[in-house]
Amino acid sequence: MKEIKTGRMMIGGKARILLYFGYDRDIFRIVRAIPGATFSYRQNAWHIAFTQANLNRLIERFRDIAVVDLAGIRRAGFIASRPVYIDPGLVPLDDRDRKWLKEMKEWMTLRDPV
After folding, report:
1. Of 12, 65, 71, 100, which sits with the fewest C-beta atoms within 10 Å of its C-beta?
2. CA 86, CA 93: separation in Å to the nearest integer?
3. Residue 94 confidence (pLDDT) above 90
4. What percent of the chain has pLDDT over 90?
5. More confident residue, 92 or 66
6. In the chain, which ranges are continuous DSSP H helix?
7. Residue 95 to residues 27, 81, 98, 100: CA-CA distances in angstroms?
8. For position 91, what pLDDT does the model report?
9. Which residue range(s) make up the domain with 69?
10. Using CA atoms, how far apart are residues 94 and 24, in angstroms rounded to an integer?
11. CA dihedral 76, 2, 37, 53 (to 10 degrees)
12. How far apart are CA 55 and CA 40, in angstroms?
């Protein structure tokens, strides 16, 4: 399967996702169709806005075509600093769920080990 590597860059104070891949007509057409996709001759890569919607687009549109390697974004701390949910099926936790998780964590740390 084909692979798309990611990286990051800032343009005008806004975060961008870099997309590195060898020339492939199918990948090219899909990336080019993402709103705001731009080619950087300096980076020799396409870049798109760092948004949840674009991450979802990458995962969904390339699901059967290519593996999207997000290590370049993670390694740079790009994902960890934002509430990003890679799987389009995942949603952010609401306050009730956060409270439940906090209580569960406290309960797990206080219970006697077996």
Report:
1. 12
2. 14
3. no
4. 38
5. 66
6. 25-32, 52-61, 71-75, 95-110
7. 39, 20, 5, 9
8. 56
9. 2-110
10. 41
11. -70
12. 19
Distance CA 61, CA 56 (A): 8
Tell me, what's the pLDDT at 109? 82
Average pLDDT (101-108) is: 83
For residue range 21-55, list pLDDT tens digits in order: 999 999 999 999 999 999 999 999 999 999 988 98
Distance CA 43, CA 69 (A): 17
Q: Measure CA 26 to chain center.
A: 20
Tell me the one-letter amino acid at 4.
I
Going across the sheet that includes 45-49, the strands are: 38-40, 45-49, 14-20, 2-11, 66-69
